[in-house]
Amino acid sequence: MATSNIYIALLHYPVYNKKGDIVTTAVTNMDIHDISRVARTYGVKRFYIITPLEQQQEFVRRILYHWQEGHGVSYNPWRKEALDITALKNTLDDAVRDIEEESASRVILVATGASSRDRFLRFEDFRRKITENTDAYLLIFGTGWGIADEIVDQADICIEPIRGPSSYNHLSVRSAVSIVLDRLLGIR
């Protein structure tokens, strides 16, 4: 059963490259599959893949078709079930409009990231907030070297970065999504 007020977005634009330039990153097959599976496991209502590039959109559509309508349906029905909550959008605004139409509630944008920000909400506080409030929450995960500041500045909430015991801090986005969803939605 889906957690009715949690949505996630994997943002491929606008994000930074390692030089700090705003770029559009490539969608990866592994991200589509792994994030869909973890989103479905944790009851996320919808997982949005955000890219403005038509060639990248076609790549996503081919993968979704294979597992939702093509040979993949009979090959692995579990994969179909996970990918059924996955949607493709041009922009983050398109995803927000989709959520507003579906949920008929305010969409609260939640930025994630590896960098410390001046303001952030701790996981335990955010976990409590999402269980006490019926607004729709859209957790935004960035690709490349992180979400562009213009998106972070639009966010209503920034949640704390994931920290391990070492100084190394460069998780794959798939790992970050898994950790965040477990901290927020996992059974304790």
Helix and strand arrangement:
Layout: E1 3-11, E2 15-16, E3 22-23, H1 29-41, E4 44-50, H2 54-68, H3 72-75, H4 77-83, E5 86-89, H5 92-103, E6 107-111, H6 123-132, E7 136-142, H7 149-154, E8 157-158, H8 173-185
Parallel strand pairs: 1-4, 1-7, 4-5, 6-7, 6-8
Antiparallel strand pairs: 2-3
Helix pairs in contact: 1-4, 1-8, 6-8
Report the CATH superfamily: SPOUT methyltransferase, trefoil knot domain
Output mean pLDDT: 93
What is the CATH-assigned architecture? 3-Layer(aba) Sandwich
- How many structural domains? 1
What is the CATH domain class?
Answer: Alpha Beta
The rounded Rg comes to 16 Å
Helix tally equals 8
The SSE string, one letter per element, is: EEEHEHHHEHEHEHEH
Residue stretches low in confidence (pLDDT < 50, at least 5 long) are none
CA-to-CA gap between the ends? 17 Å
As a percent range, the share of helical residues equals 40-55%
Strand content: 15-25%
Helix/strand-derived class? alpha/beta
CATH topology, anyone?
Answer: Alpha/beta knot
Major sheet: 6 strands, parallel
CA-based shape: globular
Q: What strand order characterises the main sheet?
A: 5-4-1-7-6-8
The total count of strands amounts to 8
Structure commentary:
- With 188 residues, the protein is an alpha/beta fold.
- It has a single domain (3-185), classed as 3-Layer(aba) Sandwich (Alpha/beta knot).
- The protein has eight helices and eight strands; from the N terminus they run E-E-E-H-E-H-H-H-E-H-E-H-E-H-E-H.
- A six-stranded parallel beta sheet has the order 5-4-1-7-6-8.
- Helix 6 links the parallel strand 6 and strand 7.
- Helix 1 crosses helix 4 (77-83), helix 1 (29-41) runs parallel beside helix 8 (173-185) and helix 6 crosses helix 8 (173-185).
- The longest helix has 15 residues, at 54-68.
- The chain is globular and about 45 Å long.
- The model has no long low-confidence stretch (mean pLDDT 93).
